[in-house]
Specification:
5 helices, about 120 residues
Length: about 120
């Protein structure tokens, strides 16, 4: 081995050793318990503008300008998403109940056992 060659590569870290690939702001939003808490965490200016903290200074300033222009629309989207999520959750629950009723009805008519929920 000559002097100009780099040292052999070291063993890389596994995923468990590296930890999560998300930032602390992303982890804060993910750790929120309910859907309203997640939406409020996503609408917080610290989380919204903190998305660009890993970029170099010039790019970060440009992205902050763009995010500042888009922030009112982001808040409007969060306000619209809240009732939409509630309605979608209710529709999903109703469809699930109808599916279980139909499953039980067919199993009863076809002579099998009704699967447990």
């Amino acid at each position: 081995m000559s002097i100009n060659e780099p040292p052999p590569p070291q063993r890389g870290l596994t995923g468990a050793e590296r930890g999560p690939a998300s930032t602390d702001l992303e982890q804060e939003v993910a750790d929120a318990r309910s859907m309203p808490q997640k939406l409020l965490a996503a609408a917080h200016p610290r989380n919204y503008f903190g998305m660009v903290k890993e970029y170099p200074a010039g790019i970060k300033q440009f992205l902050w300008l763009c995010l500042g222009i888009l922030y009112p629309f982001w808040l409007l989207g969060v306000l619209i998403a809240w009732p939409v999520m509630i309605v979608l959750k209710a529709v999903g629950w109703v469809l699930f109940q109808i599916w279980w009723f139909c499953t039980g009805w067919f199993w009863k008519r076809l002579g099998g056992e009704k699967p447990s929920a």
